[in-house]
Amino acid sequence: MSHDPSVHSLRGLSAIVTGASRGIGRAIALGYAQAGADVVINHATDQPVPQEMVDLIGAHGGRAVAVQADVGNLAEHAKLVDAALAHFGRIDILVNNAAMKRKTPVLEVTEAMWDETLRVNLKGAFFLAQRVAQVMVSAGTPGRIINITSIHESKPLNNASLYAISKSGLGMVTQALALELAPHRITVNSLIPGAYLTHMNLDTMLDPARREASGKKIPLGRLGEPEDLVAAAILLASPQSDYLTGTSIKVDGGGSLR
């Protein structure tokens, strides 16, 4: 928990962060907690409870609860919403970060692969945002929804077409929700990471030489770390972003410029 939260305080706010037990989701959850927010840490059903995160946040005076839920299963969304309301009494922020990426050539993609990828990356994100927005509207409070997309929402990814397709759809979800939820004072924006050192990409980045070569292709000279996304995630969740909605912020070291 090394991010300095002094610029944008989230004190008194409550956040749900999906896919938060590792990688980008973990970094955002810890950053939010340090900025003063209460956090629901969502982790997948096949992952252990991230108790060390809960303990770390508690040691710094914050409040967090870990909730195991498959975001692609709409029936399990209630577990996340109910946990936030039961423990913190409100929901102010949702970060749709949970995603899966399957490495499969186009000629080998099956209907089951299509359904599973879009179930988690697109369908789950849309309907969780809908459910959280319903709570916000019912409470009459403003809210923040932040979708973590990818530079591949507009740039195809070799042998991972379903991931790129789902992220492209999530980009449109951001805009569609932003338009309709604006009258309720709910802003919807997205963050666009580029090449990051996360668990999702470890299989291609284990070789140090390959990591270095990939970093040199990025204008700022290195691959992204999960913590690089935290400041932008805090900005979009903070009261200072009241007039930002329907927009996307690239946090890619300039990678999309090439």
Structural overview:
By secondary structure, this protein is of the alpha/beta class. Helices cover about 40% and strands about 15% of the residues. The protein is built from 8 helices and 7 strands. It has helices at about 25-35, 50-60, 75-90, 110-140, 160-180, 200-205, 210-215, 230-235; strands at about 15, 40-45, 65-70, 95, 145-150, 185-195, 250. A 7-stranded parallel β-sheet has the order 3-2-1-4-5-6-7, sandwiched between helices. α1 (about 25-35) crosses α8 and α4 (about 110-140) runs parallel beside α5. It starts with 13 loop residues before the first strand and ends in a 7-residue tail after the last strand. The mean pLDDT is about 95.
Which structural traits does this protein have?
alpha/beta; 258 residues; Rossmann fold; 8 helices; seven-stranded parallel β-sheet; 7 strands; single chain; globular
Number of separate structural domains: 1
Strand content: 5-15%
Helical percentage? 40-55%
Architecture (CATH level 2) name? 3-Layer(aba) Sandwich
Structural class: alpha/beta
By DSSP, the count of extended strands is 7
Q: How many separate helices?
A: 8
* CATH fold topology: Rossmann fold
CATH hierarchy class name = Alpha Beta
Write the element-wise H/E pattern from the N-terminal end onward: EHEHEHEHEHEHHHE
Largest sheet at a glance?
Answer: 7 strands, parallel
